[in-house]
Design brief:
The complex is a heterodimer.
Chain A: E1 2-6, E2 9-13, H1 21-28, E3 47-50, E4 53-56, E5 69-71, H2 83-90, H3 100-113, H4 119-125, H5 136-147
Parallel strand pairs in A: 1-5
Antiparallel strand pairs in A: 1-2, 3-4, 3-5
Helix pairs in contact in A: 2-5
Chain B: E1 3-6, E2 22-27, H1 31-40, E3 51-54, E4 60-64, H2 73-85, E5 92-96, H3 101-104, H4 119-146, E6 153-156, E7 159-162, E8 168-170, H5 171-174, H6 210-215, E9 230-235, E10 243-248, H7 250-253, E11 258-264, E12 280-285, H8 288-296, E13 299-303, H9 312-325, E14 328-333, H10 336-342, E15 345-353, E16 356-357, E17 365-369, E18 375-379, H11 384-395, E19 402-406, H12 420-432, E20 436-439, H13 442-448, E21 451-452, E22 455-463, E23 469-477, H14 494-498, E24 511-516, H15 533-551, H16 555-563, H17 593-606, E25 617-626, E26 629-638, E27 648-657
Parallel strand pairs in B: 4-5, 9-20, 18-19, 23-24
Antiparallel strand pairs in B: 1-2, 2-3, 3-4, 6-7, 7-8, 9-12, 10-13, 11-12, 14-24, 15-22, 16-21, 17-18, 17-20, 22-23, 25-26, 26-27
Helix pairs in contact in B: 2-4, 11-12, 15-16, 16-17
Chain lengths: 150, 665
């Protein structure tokens, strides 16, 4: 059995401890904000926080999060008003939106660990998150805006 | 011209998703069809097919009948209507229409398929008319309430104002008096705003799904669950049109969460692929990871079928040879052979574009309950109406037996116009007696998706002593996407010719010939964004630049000379009658060399073209007409040594000319 706190709620999972966190959260808990893109930690659409650190949940087994605190996009802020989320809306970042949960979770973790990133640190910190629509300029601008608020 | 109607009191509204005390619909079937529809309905009025509703609380609900995949259509098209209506954008809600082309194909010519870069083109006029009609009805209602002449009232910012008293009503306060107000047609039809009065159209507006997309609440294909639903992945034949000879599911069934392993029967050999399910071994279970694990444990012996000999390098050589051979002349001006023979200098080059796979960020996913009536389909689809058609066929039913709801699409690029994945879910759902979600993976898409055609292009040109092009010969070969329907197709389709080849804009060249060589499709070829414009623009712009270098001339000046300054290029004088022109007439949407020259000049000016650049830096310009838009781009490339020819782009500077740009960007 694996015990995890997800978005502040304690959960026990009795299934295979090898199941990636992504599929546990999406299919067993019905929290679908975290997306399945590549399944190989190559695109970042599935990004969640485990004890505050961004992880690619599509390759992170549930067992890794045993006893830890997991935050998904749904739990980032109760009203959806985390500074990164507000900056995202202010900059009209999304196009298709599919990668955006992962982008926002990566940005939030980046600013948690580095509240005053340089331009280069924003670029390198967000480099693992792919946006097929190419919204990178607005992603950059939104992270820059959010950094002024956190 | 559409006929907008106030339909607030019609019974069928109860079945639609539009709520409001005032509802407007538009009969927008094209002229010639109206008589036929009237005849079918026994002379009764036509059921309107686009809706805007205004509720008593003032909320404006606008139907979006197109699929959102990042192009902004759920924002852009409703914005047009909201602008004309004078609605406050923050009080507008969008209702996503299900698949029903009879109702939601406003121009009557695209089957509600969100592809072909035509949604805005097909919606601009009718959405403006609907908005203006809504404004008219509300103004009339307010005038009635005040007991004043309608000429004394006007709509602005979600309110109706009275000029004399300064009084005003919120939209919602007048809807009770608006339900029976007729919308006049003809000369008395509601006036459209002047373009200078537009407040949303052309502006960068907040994306309607912005909040949901920033909080994880936006629903894509794989995010939908329905009661009793199973999850499935499919092991598909590694070779196109192959089949499973035998399979052993023992190990797969041992995975916790795997419930069944069933075979989706292979499509019979005599049936073209189209958008049908091709068959495979499906692993069905309670969660995605289990069925993925189960699929890994399947032991399948495949029978590869007729395409087993297809290998890339041999096939590439065949395409190159086919391009060199040409054979099917599709446009001919002057005498290319004589001009080439007489040229002072001639050049020949080959350009090759490999297969592209669409790989949208969101792999395809569809949910089907085949055992419900009507059959329920929920899918990340660009083409919900065709999804109904193909799902119905897969189940042996009529299209009217199938409904299709549209989720947000995590990218589409044409891939999601092809509902093979919904057909798989339909067949499985029927077989196992439960609703099913079929989930594709990235690898599935790369192994078994629809590929954009590989193509080879052989270009020849002759230059005179002054470095002016006297002859241009372009011969291209590619597997036609028509092979999806006609597997033996060996030549391109007029649609493919029309995608930037037959309309080669080099109107300044006196001798010009365009040919197509023969090739067979060995995989599923499907249209990728811009379709054949990709390879055509690539080949002709590269060749023009290489010619300029050979002539020792400035490449931008050289391109401008090739294109010329004609307002309209007439293909008829080159022997081309009725070219495919993105589904539109060349009279309405002519080919305009001068517009292309102009965007090239703008791109050159804005990019600082012509200034001396540091060693190892270069600026390249190209331009193309695609889907009636004229685009030029400048790319700054930095490289050194062997990298100089394939350097890293530093920035691009695009310049476009389109009809009317709705959202910014």
């Amino acid at each position: 059995m694996v015990s995890i706190r997800i978005n502040g709620i304690s959960r026990q999972f009795h299934g295979s401890p090898d199941m990636p966190l992504l599929w546990y959260v999406r299919d067993e808990l019905g929290l679908t904000g975290s997306k399945f893109g590549c399944g190989m930690a190559l695109c970042g659409a599935c990004t969640m926080h485990v004890d505050g650190v961004a992880v690619r949940s599509c390759v992170t087994p549930v067992s890794y999060a045993d006893g830890k605190e997991v935050t998904t996009i749904e739990g980032l802020d109760p009203e959806g008003n985390h500074p990164v989320q507000r900056a995202w809306r202010a900059h009209n970042v999304p196009q298709c939106g599919y990668c955006q949960s992962g982008q926002i979770m990566s940005a939030a973790a980046l600013l948690q660990s580095n509240p005053d990133p340089s331009d280069e640190e924003i670029v390198s910190g967000m480099a693992g998150n792919i946006c097929r629509c190419g919204t990178y300029q607005r992603i950059f601008a939104a992270v820059r805006t959010a950094a002024q608020e956190v | 011209m559409s006929g907008v109607q106030n339909i607030s009191r019609r019974d069928f509204l109860k079945q639609s998703g539009i709520a409001g005390a005032v509802v407007l619909g538009a009969n927008v079937v094209p002229g010639p069809m109206i008589a036929a529809v009237r005849a079918q309905s026994g002379g009764a009025s036509i059921q309107p097919n686009l809706f805007v509703g205004i509720a008593a609380d003032g909320t404006v609900t606008i139907t979006c009948s197109r699929s959102e995949m990042g192009q902004g259509v759920r924002t852009g098209i409703p914005m047009i209507l909201a602008d004309e209506l004078e609605a406050d954008w923050h009080r507008v809600k969008i209702w996503q229409a299900p698949g029903d082309a009879e109702k939601y194909d406003p121009a009557g010519k695209d089957g509600q398929n969100t592809d072909g870069s035509r949604s805005t083109r097909h919606h601009l006029d009718v959405m403006r008319e609907l908005g203006a009609a809504g404004r008219y009805v509300l103004e009339q209602a307010a005038a009635r309430k005040w007991g004043v002449d309608a000429g004394e009232v006007y709509a602005k910012d979600h309110r109706i104002h009275h000029t004399g008293t300064g009084q005003s009503f919120d939209f919602g306060e007048v809807v009770d008096a608006a339900a029976d107000i007729e919308v006049p047609t003809g000369a008395g039809a509601p006036k459209l705003k002047d373009m200078s009065q537009w407040k949303y159209i052309g502006r960068d507006m907040p994306v309607v799904d912005n909040y949901d997309m920033s909080t994880g609440g936006a629903s894509f294909g794989a995010d939908i669950s329905i009661p009793g639903m199973k999850i499935a992945v499919v092991a598909r034949p590694p070779v196109y049109r192959g089949k499973a000879k035998s399979f052993d599911a023992t190990a797969a069934l041992g995975v916790q969460g795997v419930e069944q392993v069933v075979e989706i029967p292979p499509l019979p050999d005599d049936k073209p692929a189209e958008f049908r399910a091709l068959g495979g071994i499906a692993v069905v279970g309670t969660n995605t990871w289990s069925v993925l694990e189960g699929r890994r444990k399947l032991a399948i012996e495949w029978e590869d079928g007729p395409h087993t000999a297809h290998d890339s390098s041999t096939y590439d050589d065949e395409l190159r040879a086919a391009a060199a051979a040409g054979g099917h002349v599709i446009r001919d001006r002057g005498n290319v052979d004589e001009a080439l023979a007489a040229a002072d200098q001639s050049l020949e080059a080959e350009y090759f574009v490999p297969y592209f796979i669409h790989t949208p960020m969101e792999p395809p996913a569809a949910i089907v309950d085949a055992n419900a009536r009507p059959v329920k389909v929920v899918a990340a689809t660009q083409s919900p109406n065709e999804t109904r058609q193909y799902v119905a066929e897969a189940l042996g039913l009529e299209k009217s037996d199938v409904t299709c709801e549209v989720t947000l699409l995590g990218g589409g690029f044409g891939r999601k116009s092809k509902p093979d994945f919904a057909c798989e879910a339909a067949i499985l759902s029927k077989m196992i007696g439960s609703p099913v979600r079929v989930q594709w993976t990235r690898e599935d898409e790369i192994r078994n998706g629809y590929y954009h055609a590989a193509s080879a292009h052989r270009l020849k040109a002759g230059l005179d002593a002054s470095g002016k092009v006297t002859a241009w010969h372009h011969s291209g070969a590619w597997p036609s996407l028509i092979a999806l329907w006609a597997p033996d197709a060996r030549t391109g389709h007029p649609i493919e010719y029309g995608l930037g080849l037959i309309d080669t804009p080099y109107d300044g060249v006196p001798n010009l010939r365009i040919e197509n060589g023969e090739a067979s499709a060995m995989i599923r070829v499907g249209w990728y964004r811009s379709v054949n414009n990709i390879q055509h623009a690539f080949a002709m712009n590269c060749f023009a630049n290489e010619l300029a270098a050979a002539a020792g001339r400035d490449p931008v000046e050289f391109l401008l000379e090739l294109i010329g300054e004609a307002d309209v290029m007439d293909l008829a004088k080159d022997g081309v009658e009725n070219p495919w022109n993105y589904g539109d007439s060349v009279e309405e949407w002519p080919i305009m060399p001068k517009r292309l020259s102009n965007v090239l000049r703008v791109a050159a000016a804005k990019s600082g073209y012509g200034k001396t650049m540091p060693k190892g830096h270069g600026l390249g310009l190209a331009c193309h007409r695609s889907f009636h838009s004229y685009v030029a781009a400048a790319v700054h490339v930095v490289g050194s040594g062997t990298m100089a020819r394939s350097g890293f782009p530093r920035w691009t500077w695009p310049s476009t000319a389109a009809g009317t740009s709705i959202p910014k960007g």
